[in-house]
Amino acid sequence: MIRKKGSEAGAQDASLLIALDKSRSRLSSDSSGTIYNGVPYGGFEEEDKDDSIYVHADEGYSPNVRGNYFRDGQTQIDFVLVWEEKVRPLKKRRGKLARDDRTDGHREHWKRKFLNNLRNAGLLMEKEEMRSERKTIHYLKLSAPWDVLVYYAEELCMRAPLQAQPNPDWNSSAGVLGSLCIPNLLHQHIPNQPVDYYTCAFRRSKLDKFLGSDSRDSYFSNTQRHRIVYEILARTVYGKRKRAEIGINRLLNERVYAAAFPLHEGPFETPESEVPDDALNPRQVLYRFWAQWGCWYRYQPLDHICEYFGEKIAIYFAWLGFYTAWLLPAAAVGTMIFLAGLFAMGTNTPAQEICESGGQFLMCPLCETCETWNISEICPMAKVGYLFDHPGTVFFSVFMSFWAVTFLEYWKRKSAMLAHHWDCMDFQEEEERPRPEFAAMAPWMEQNPITGVKEPYFPRRDRLSRVLTGSMAIVIMLCVVIIFLVSVIMYRGIVSVMMYHTGNAILMTQAGNIANISSTLVNLVLILLMSQVYTSLAEKLTRWEMHRTQTLHEDAFTFKVFIFQFVNFYSSPFYVAFFKGRFVGYPGQYGTLLGLRNEECGPGGCLIELAQQLFIIMVGKQIIGNIQEFVIPKLKAWQQKRKLARVRGTQISQEPPRWEEDYELIECEGLFDEYLEMVLQFGFITIFVAAFPLAPLFALLNNWVEIRLDAQKFVCEYRRPVAYRTQDIGVWFLILEVLAQISVVVNAFLIAFTSDFLPRLLYQYEHESQLQGYVNFTLAYSPPCYVATGNHTLCRYKAFRDANGNYTLFYWKLLAIRLGFIIAFEHVVFFFLRLIDWLVPDVPGSLELTIKRERYLAKQALADNQEVLLTVSRESASPASSLSSSSMS
Fold first, then answer.
1. pTM, two decimal places
2. CA dist 524 to 100, 111, 475, 624, 680, Å?
3. 3-state class percentages of the chain: helix first, strand second, coil last, to nearest 5
4. Phi, psi of 387 (to 5 degrees)
5. Which residues contact 103 (CB under 8 A, 6 or more apart)?
6. How far apart are the first and last CA of the chain?
7. Max Cα separation, the chain?
8. Over the stretch 399-410, which tens digit does the pLDDT of each residue have?
9. How far is the CA of 543 from the CAs of 304, 432, 467, in angstroms?
10. What's the CA gap between 569 and 481, in Å, rounded?
11. By C-alpha distance, which of 793, 788, 760 is closest to 359?
């Protein structure tokens, strides 16, 4: 709390009451304080003459030092501000302060004005220090009294409880298992289940209508208190308003403060002694029933997550859990398709013909300096290739198209139910303030047409020119990705030739596989490096484009990063699927790229190479990403603890208070990287699923690990983030819908042009056989000119060409069938997708009834003098009242 220097000891209780009275009088008066966006801030632009803002609380108190309270043991800590001061001798240069001292003085001036204005806004403060010979760390504890909470609860349109109702069960699998009388191993009893309420917008004048209003200490939840105090911190002026010197975010950017965070509610470690589950604090509940690895098969406690971390983080984990649950049927079907291909390998007639051909088919050389070879040498790869190229993969691609759209439709329903349950269905951000960096760098000031307040302004034309310039930078980076792709292609050709010239029979036979696998590993390394470089570049470009609000800034950044990552991760699979082997030419007329012959598909076809690429890129990225998520936060936390241990010195043996323990944790990095990782994974399991039916299984295994890693980071490694509100996953849902639409088109082309499904089907139809002689039919003879000039015997190569190198009639029939298949596939699939979209409502019928019931209760609770109004209206409508009124007139 605020204490004046020189005040008498023992006056803390009196000062607390005075501060409360001041805050009440301030909030009840329209003329006091500064008004910004219609909200009183208590911040003044003139210099505050009182520089005595805070001192230590008296040492005579018996406080709950380690708890989330002031030293009086009653005032709850809602937020903590931290700043560090280095102890160093004063530097002078010709009688003037050195540049760093002037900077420190400027920051100190901002800090004092900011704290003065926080005091004027009604916040209570108490300061702690941790000193060492080199550095002093200051902790300023903030608390919002009741009147401040009530005022901002109405200003921020928070929801208040009207009537309790049964907490709904969001797990549809529980009902299915219950109807089948199967024990539900996924369920677990979690203590202190949050109560569900019918709610309406909070009104101070209707406080007695809301449940729990008689208990002021527990009426507002901790996350609501944090949100209110953060709103005050974000709106408080610390300098000149015309320079947009407003808010804690800009002060953090200016390094006036080192950190600003709400406190965790105690440690996450459970006590060694046996204690009842109901006695655990919320953080311990989340750790025991959510973040531990033993909970990998349990339902997530979404209500507890929302109550502790807020809706934005809770909706991410709800989406991740929902997505992981929907991967179960996809993984099951994909595994069955893979096993079906594995069991049917022995019945693959073309593979049997290849294995039994002996020296019957002499194949043309694979490079200019290579020799001819027998097709029987690729017998193992021909059998393996059937795993990824059989009729089941066609069914699976159709299934996954329906799966993707159905998943998104049902997520809309789930999202609507959660948004209503967490009271953020109608939530919309108020008019956003300018970003701190935008405010600091914008060259002009202009009046906001909504708020009427002058704020930093950047001309739209100048921003458009910067956006176009940034787009050119994106194009250049995409060209760099293509250059790396060409380099990998050339690397693959060089390695395969080197393997062939070793003379080793095994290396010669597996030259293509060795080159493909090694080049994919090289490509994965390049992808990860380019991702780091471009993410940093995109962040700088987005900042340079000067977007006014944080939402616009994040959307622009998301768009840039996703476009680049899409090309970065999917360019190599797209090349293998649709370009490799298409421009090879034929003997005597081979196509070249920078002097090297264009690549041909491997012995098992391009689909098996595509499966190898998808496996290495997708699974390799997941493994590396999980290792980074496990190791990097621990390294950062260790470094932070080591830095504070040097300051704490001899006190390291003592148990530190809660605010020091939380400062040792690392700052929450947000959810952008988490969403991006999952969206890229969604692309892998939908766009190229025809070539890699095991992709959903690997995604499922990764997500089981991902949920626990993310849970441990938020519960154990991160400082507690501010509880932001949101009603959905935002722009990521639009990206998922685009990927689902792209997957339909890509899989249609993949089946038509990369798979052998249609050539085999057409051959069976024309020859009325079970693919006997299919291998010989697909091999063309080298032209006579190639035999004469190349001094080779007559050889074969895979193509539908005649002896002169021209395409056969079968090729043109097959091309027409391929194009017809693409059109039919897309129209049929898109028709059923639209049908699913129409049949599955975005909001369930039961939820609509609940919403209507809630609106009715809100209308009853917020009606002013309803009975009086009804009486007046009846009297005014009666004839007697009209006669009496006329006689009186």
1. 0.82
2. 45, 47, 21, 10, 14
3. 60, 10, 30
4. -60, -30
5. none
6. 62
7. 125
8. 998 899 889 988
9. 36, 17, 11
10. 10
11. 793
Phi, psi values for residue 552, rounded to 5°: -65, -40
Q: Which amino acid is at 788?
A: A
Bridge partners, residue 232, by sequence: none
pLDDT band for position 870 (50/70/90)? very low
Let me know: does 577 contact 743? Beta carbons within 8 Å: no
DSSP-derived 3-state class of residue 665: coil
Distance, in Å, from the CA atom of 378 to the CA atom of 467, rounded to the nearest integer, reads 52
Contacts of 413 (CB under 8 A, 6+ apart): 840, 841, 842, 843, 844
Dist. CA 253–CA 405, nearest whole Å:
42
36 forms beta bridges with 39
The token pair that represents 486 in the structure block: 């060409």
Residue 794 burial (10 A CB sphere; 0-12, 13-18, 19+): middle
Tell me the sheet residues that pair with 83: 138
Comparison of pLDDT for 3 and 88, the residue scoring more: 88
Is 118:232 a contact under the CB 8 Å cutoff? yes
* Cα–Cα distance for residue pair 493/488, rounded to 1 Å: 9
Cα(752)–Cα(34) distance, integer angstroms: 68
Mean pLDDT over 30-41 rounds to 34
Unique residue bearing structure tokens 């100048």: 462
The runs of H, that is alpha helices, within 29-145 are: 99-120
Residues pairing with 444 in the sheet: 457
Name, in order, each residue with C-beta under 8 angstroms of 191's C-beta and a sequence gap of 6 or more: 276, 277, 278, 280, 285
* H/E element, 141: strand 135-143
Asked if residues 550 and 435 have their Cβ atoms less than 8 Å apart, the reply is yes
Q: For residue range 762-799, what is the model confidence (pLDDT) as tens digits?
A: 988 888 777 888 888 888 888 876 654 455 578 888 88
**How many whole angstroms separate alpha carbon 471 and alpha carbon 12?**
59
**Residue 608's CB: how many other CB atoms inside 10 A?**
24
- Please provide the DSSP assignment of 472-538 as one string: HHHHHHHHHHHHHHHHHHHHHHHHHHHHHTT--HHHHHTHHHHHHHHHHHHHHHHHHHHHHHHHHHH
Q: What is the per-residue pLDDT across 799-858, written as a single tens digit (0 to 9) for each?
A: 888 888 788 899 899 999 999 999 998 888 888 888 887 887 777 777 777 777 767 776
Cβ pair 571, 485 in contact under 8 A: yes
pLDDT above 60: residue 18: no
pLDDT per residue over 212-232, tens digit each?
Answer: 777 777 888 888 899 899 988
The DSSP output letter for 74 is S
- Dist CA 809 CA 800 (whole Å): 9
Q: What is the 3-state secondary structure (H, E, C) of 432-466?
A: CCCCHHHHHHCCEEEECCCCCCEEEECCHHHHHHH
Q: What is the pLDDT, as a whole number, of residue 680?
A: 92
Give the closest residue to 797 by CA, choosing from 586, 656, 634.
586
Contact 707, 301 (CB under 8 A): no
Amino acid identity of residue 302, one-letter, is: L
Q: Are 24 and 146 in contact (CB under 8 A)?
A: no
State how far the Cα of 574 lies from the Cα of 526, in Å rounded to an integer: 17
Which has the closest alpha carbon to 819: 755, 774, 753, 877?
Answer: 753
| Cβ atoms within 10 Å of 18's Cβ, excluding its own | 13
What pLDDT shows up at residue 46? 40
- Measured CA to CA, the distance from residue 171 to residue 303 in angstroms comes to 13
The owner of tokens 């380019």 is: 530
Convert 663-690 to b/e letters by CB count within 10 Å (16 or more is b). bbbbebeebeebbbbbbbbbbbbbbbbb
Q: If pLDDT is split at 50, 70 and 90, which confidence band does 862 have?
A: low
The dihedral region occupied by 326, where left means phi > 0, alpha psi between -120 and 50, and beta the remainder, is alpha
CA 416/CA 727 separation, integer angstroms: 8
